[in-house]
């Protein structure tokens, strides 16, 4: 949450959100699979981890590319940070 509030533009926020979302879902579902034990359900849960690990970065890339093509300009150091 701190990164989303403090980062200056859409692209840096998207980067932070993509990383934390992927890691958070992976840790929660892996913990659930370990709690479930060795079963078919744990295999299904681990397949969800693989899907999320592939889908989240792809979705973040597509969102960033669409924002860039729509004319959103990435933040640079010369622009400064209005919040600091």
From TrEMBL:
Lineage: unclassified sequences, metagenomes, ecological metagenomes
UniProt protein name: Cation:proton antiporter
Organism: marine metagenome
Annotated coiled-coil segments of the chain: none
Pfam families: PhaG_MnhG_YufB
UniProt GO MF annotations: sodium:proton antiporter activity
